[in-house]
Design brief:
Blueprint: E1 2-4, E2 10-15, E3 22-30, E4 37-50, E5 53-63, E6 66-72
Antiparallel strand pairs: 1-2, 2-3, 3-4, 4-5, 5-6
Length: 75
C-alpha cells in the first residue's frame, strides 16, 4: 500500500494482513544539491501489546538500503 500526502509525496508501506500492523515504511526523496534519489526506510518487528497498544520492540532503520541503526526494547 502507498500513502500519498497533500504535497503529492508517496510513502510505500508493508502491513501484516492479519493484524494490519506495519512491517516497513519507506520514503524516497531527491537530494536538492546532487539530484539523486535517496531511500529512507524503517522496519518494525517483535510486536508486544503494551498498555493495550501493539508496539514494535525492534525498529531497524536504513538509509539508501544500508543499515543505519537499530532500536531494541527489552521487558
Amino acid at each position: 500500500m502507498t500513502l500519498i500526502s497533500a504535497q503529492n509525496e508517496a510513502s510505500p508501506s508493508r502491513w501484516i494482513r492479519k493484524t494490519h500492523l506495519p512491517l516497513r515504511r519507506s520514503f524516497e526523496w531527491r537530494d536538492p544539491v546532487f539530484k539523486d534519489k535517496n531511500l529512507d526506510a524503517e522496519e518494525y518487528d517483535d510486536y508486544h501489546t503494551f498498555d493495550g497498544i501493539p508496539t514494535p520492540f525492534t525498529i531497524t532503520r536504513f538509509k539508501n538500503r544500508r543499515l543505519f541503526g537499530s532500536i531494541f526494547w527489552f521487558t
